[in-house]
Amino acid sequence: MQLKSLVAVILLLGCGGVTAFAQQPGVDPIGDNLFAPEFVMGHQQALGLTEEQKAFFKTGVRKAQTIFTELQWQLQDEMEKLVAQVSPAQVNEAQTLEQLDKVLNLEREIKKAQIALLVRIKNNLTPDQQARLREIRARK
After folding, report:
1. 68: domain range?
2. What is the mean pLDDT of the chain?
3. Number of domains observed in the structure of the chain
4. For the chain, what is the HEC assignment?
5. 6 part of a folded domain
6. Is residue 112 a contact partner of residue 24, using CB atoms and an 8 Å limit?
7. Is residue 120 part of a domain?
8. CB 14 within 8 A of CB 107
9. What pLDDT, on the 0 to 100 scale, is given for residue 54?
10. Which percentage of the chain shows pLDDT scores above 90?
11. SS (H, E, C) 83-95
12. How far apart are CA 114 and CA 107, in angstroms?
């Protein structure tokens, strides 16, 4: 039961910042202004992406995937340690909170890397291409 509670708390912490910022269900002011690489590449013909843009996106996504994979491995390792710390009948609060900080810091690094990739993608699109993506997104 403790493990389920801990997981629920971590999920709430992870989602709480976005929910508090948005204040309205379904509103994502950050996501509404950025474009996922899959979305951009899925509409490359409609956007008229240049070969340079395609190469930039492919390289950027490959680099980001390497970073994400490493951070996910680290996060998994730290989560296992956190679970082990909360498993005994008596839990050392200070050690558990210290371990939780490690988990949260890795989650922050993952989110930071994700936003950095999305910003690089947006900055490599022309204003017309960005407008076209917004139109495509609005139709879905």
Report:
1. 28-139
2. 88
3. 1
4. CHHHHHHHHHHHHHHHHHHHHHCCCCCCCCHHHCCCHHHHHHCHHHHCCCHHHHHHHHHHHHHHHHHHHHHHHHHHHHHHHHHHHHCCCCCCHHHHHHHHHHHHHHHHHHHHHHHHHHHHHHHCCCHHHHHHHHHHHHHC
5. no
6. no
7. yes
8. yes
9. 96
10. 76
11. HHHHCCCCCCHHH
12. 11
Query: What is the distance between the alpha carbons of residues 122 and 134, in angstroms, rounded to a whole number?
Result: 12
Query: What sign does the dihedral 125-128-131-132 (CA atoms) show?
Result: negative
Say how many C-beta atoms besides its own lie within 10 A of residue 123's C-beta.
9
Is residue 7 one of the residues assigned to a domain? no
Q: How far apart are CA 138 and CA 51, in angstroms?
A: 26
Amino acid at 86: V
CB 115 within 8 A of CB 30: yes
What's this model's pTM, rounded to 2 decimal places? 0.76
74-102 per-position pLDDT tens digit: 999 999 999 999 999 999 999 999 999 99
State how far the Cα of 58 lies from the Cα of 8, in Å rounded to an integer: 36
- Evaluate whether residue 19 is within a structural domain: no
CATH number of the domain where residue 133 is located: 1.20.120
How far apart CA 89 and CA 85 sit, in angstroms, is 10
Mean pLDDT on 123-128: 98
